[in-house]
Specification:
By secondary structure, this protein is α+β, with helices and mostly antiparallel strands. The strands form six sheets. The chain has a seven-stranded mixed β-sheet, sandwiched between helices. A hairpin with a 5-residue loop joins strand 2 and strand 3. Helix 8 packs parallel to helix 9. The radius of gyration is 21 Å and the shape is globular. The protein binds acetyl coenzyme *A (ACO). Acetyl coenzyme *A binds next to helix 4 and helix 8. Belongs to the thiolase-like superfamily. FabH family. This is beta-ketoacyl-[acyl-carrier-protein] synthase III. It is an enzyme of class 2 (transferase).
């Protein structure tokens, strides 16, 4: 059980006077006083979801951190599989109806990877579009963060994306596993790498194929999920242009029992010892169970924890709910999105949602919705967005960001 929250932005006027010269940190790990430009404050502490949701502020435990750069979001892209599965299609394989799914979730369609499709290829397509929009050459990318819980290689798929993009300068590439909170965690990680690690162009990709872990006979879960990839290019910039204003991150392993896809032993691979008993060595080959979810508990957790997390992030950014242009939540359920917007007093016309077309695409849902909103002209350069992810772990968190 833990949380971390902070603000970095020198662009929030009320925070500017706090900056003062300090030590900068480089990717190599060496310290220098030459690139010193500002000081910001972050916080971290340990608290449970219940306690945090009941009002304990993380700001009490705030401790100083040192940074030297700003970072901004300069490009985005997305990709979805070709196969579309409608509610009516699902009603042919489980006992459900278009009406039940639409009313309870707001979902009408989802995209699903077929046998031949690759999630890595989808992530590469999204990343290429983000680089194109940002007008950044793959060779200039120095970090690839793949936020996914469904990599095609147990050891991580990010290096495969790095290879497919043709990044000749061999950027660092690794995976981040945090289910539906993955993209927000990736965004904050990118900011930390830029501010404290000397990285310049960081590709944050959210990509998931939960369809591969869904029990397609379980009507309680199979109606919810879809597959997709979305990407954002986060770039180092002058501290005055900084576009990641504040964040708030949490996890609570207590809640794992409500939502998981845990490891299971493969019954067929049990090894018999010489006396006929099941031997402990060599270990059995493992696989993962399908997604197990207590929907009601996850629903309750989301509507309780997410608005509070956004409020904390806004507080760290020195902003109020009325100053955000867009609310962009993980696309899990229309009723969750509506409840959070109501609690934060954000009117429906300032809520971004494409849930109806894609369902819950886990780590991809925020960058996918952002990409559509940017390309349709809804989100414009300079707009402030409150983004929040929540899901398995349990994990949840928010980031207050500026587009462009
Ligand atoms: N079609 C028809 N009936 C259904 C279906 C279905 N697809 N699914 C469940 N039902 C039935 C149930 O059997 C139950 O029937 P009963 O009353 O006869 O027992 C009834 O509908 C109500 O079921 P509930 O599960 O109580 O329905 P609820 O209103 O809670 O909605 C839902 C279920 C949509 C899953 C909701 O709980 C939800 O969205 N929860 C949040 C999930 C979420 O946000 N996950 C995000 C994280 S995902 C991740 O991190 C990987």
């Amino acid at each position: 059980m833990a949380n971390a929250s902070g603000f970095f932005s020198p662009t929030v006027p009320s925070l500017r006077r706090r900056y003062q010269p300090c030590i900068g940190f480089y990717r190599s790990g060496f310290c220098s006083t030459e690139l010193i430009s500002k000081r910001v404050f972050c916080s971290s502490a340990t608290e449970g979801a219940e306690k945090h949701a009941s009002g304990a502020s993380p700001s009490e435990s705030r401790v100083p951190r040192l940074v030297s750069k700003g970072c901004k979001l300069v490009g985005c892209g997305s990709a979805v599989p070709k196969l579309q599965v409608s509610n009516d299609d699902l009603a042919k394989i489980v006992e459900t109806s278009d009406e039940w799914i639409s009313v309870r979730t707001g979902i009408h369609n989802r995209r699903v990877l077929t046998g031949k499709d690759s999630l890595t290829a989808l992530a590469v397509e999204a990343a290429k579009k983000a680089l194109q929009m940002a007008q950044v050459d793959p060779d200039d990318v120095d970090l690839v963060l793949l936020c996914t819980s469904t990599p095609e290689d147990l050891f991580g798929s990010a290096p495969q994306i790095q290879k497919a993009l043709g990044c000749k300068r061999n950027p660092l590439a690794y995976d981040i596993t945090a289910a539906c909170s993955g993209f927000v965690l990736g965004l904050v990680s990118a900011a930390c790498h830029i501010r404290g690690g000397g990285f310049h162009n960081v590709l944050v990709i959210g990509a998931d194929a939960l369809s591969r872990y869904v029990d397609w006979t379980d009507r309680g879960t199979c109606i919810l999920f879809g597959d997709a990839a979305g990407a954002v290019l986060v770039q180092a910039c002058d501290s005055e242009e900084d576009g990641i204003f504040g964040f708030d991150l949490h996890s609570d392993g207590e809640g794992q029992r409500h939502l998981n896809a845990s490891i299971k032993d493969n019954e067929m691979d049990h090894v018999l010892g010489s006396n006929g008993s099941v031997s402990d060595f060599p270990p059995r080959r493992s696989s993962y169970s399908c997604i197990q979810m207590n929907g009601k508990e996850v629903f309750r957790f989301a509507v309780r924890a997410v608005p509070q997390s956004i409020e904390y992030a806004l507080e760290k950014a020195g902003l109020s709910g009325s100053s955000i242009d867009w609310l962009l939540l993980h696309q899990a359920n229309r009723r969750i999105i509506d409840a959070v917007a109501t609690r934060l007093e954000v009117p429906p016309e300032r809520v971004i949602s494409n849930l109806a077309n894609y369902g819950n695409t886990s780590a991809a849902s925020i960058p996918l919705a952002l990409d559509e909103a940017v390309r349709s002209g809804k989100v414009q350069s300079g707009h402030t967005i409150a983004a929040a992810g929540f899901g398995a772990g349990l994990t949840w968190g928010s980031a207050i960001i500026r587009w462009g």
